[in-house]
Amino acid sequence: MSNRTPGSRTTRRRFLYGAGVTTGALALGRHAAAQSTKKTDLVMAQSGDISKLDPHLSTAGFDVTVTFNLYDHLVSRRRDNKLYPSLATSWASLAPTTWQFKLRPGVKFHNGDPFTSADVKFSIERTYDPQAKTNVSTIFTSVDRVDTPDALTVNFITKKPDPLLPARLAFYGGQIIPKKYFEAVGADEFNAKPIGTGPVKFVSWRKDDQLVFDAVPDYWGGRVNFNRLVFRPIPETSARVAALLKGEVDMISKLPPDQIEQVRNHPSTKVESALFAGQYVLAVNSKRPPLDNPLVKQALSLAIDREVIVKELWHGQAIVPNGPIAKGDNHYNDKLPPLKHDPAAARQRLQAAGYKGEEIVLETTSGVVSNDKAMSEAVMAMWRDVGINAKVELIEASVRAQKIRERSLKGLLWIEPASTLGDPDGMMWRLLAPGAVYEYWRQPRFEELGNAARFSLDENFRGKAYAEMSQIILENFPWIPVIQANDHYGLQRYVEWKPYSNQQIELRAFNFRFRQA
Asked: CA-to-CA distance for 32 and 493, rounded, in angstroms?
């Protein structure tokens, strides 16, 4: 544990009240037998409502939960972190800059239109079309063009060798949308009435109430084990947990650590967990003074006692990161020490920066990111202890989504970037590169290294490049890594489902079923 200032005990008392509802003593049923059900509808509660149904316009967790089931990718990444065929049955590198994908025959969109290579070309090219203004514009910047030799063949011609292209196609931006339907109805109507090839099809959406899908009877991957899927936004943690315990919902996400035992000990519910393949970080608007000064951001990081946050707010269900590369990622260096807590050094940085008490705003929701409100209160108290004029502002989930889309952060904001590729290119470069969604900051050497590493087939070079990029981040802090946490989900005991480390909620036949009565 790092050294603390005399005010740190006061700091701890100030913020721990916000950690959540106390765990109850519901000890009966810890070892309850597996339960069954006659249910045919799956109801899932999330901590906020979706913002977009168009898969290329949002990477928010709520939206991705939906779009990864409404649409398919050419390739899918499963819980074992391996890539599997999806809309593509096979793929191969024909040349250093050519990847060929053979498509699955007989697949239809939800309106009955056939899926072809034209849809793949349209979908991928749209992601980086400047006029489309997508939130995934940096995903396929390695692609020079997409060729379609026939209806079931797609060739990706890359600008330079891109060994990660199949992995890129398995995550954000890789969802395939119907060219014919989209061009017929336009972007707004498509977002309102989306069509994909996934295992569920859109029925209705009442904002802040419920989002409804029906199972696709003849889905190519096998019919899902429910008739209807309902997403309910329940922002308040206590209300979301109560809905699960009462049997009003079948699954909940964002189960905070202090509620785990209550859910686990209840006779009808259980907990499933996975180490998040990403980090909880504070995104920074580095264009807004005084956050445009790297010394101020270094002070913000040094003032955060991450070990206290892990112990007190996460009940040990998290680790302190040692940099911007998540544990479990390619090129993660386990020999580096955890990020430092040093209040004296924080004060020195503030003095060197000429900080004069300018207000620094941390915007937060309550539960969109697990423990976000409690962590905000903790971090604010720690910042104030070193002389930072910190303020927390509570915002709604929809406002948060709009701020991310419009790049309009007041100061700092909790985000949880996932490592979409199991590689630093899928997190730090995807989100901090020029034109990326959190590009409030530019650094020439970072950009030079990122561009070189993503095209290199030399893993030794890539490792060195990412090590230097990590140091650049820790000097400039375009975002401030805070923790890498375990993700927890509450389920009814009759639900058989396993979480993914990247927070993808896969509701397909191979990963979900109701245990029937």
From this structure: 9
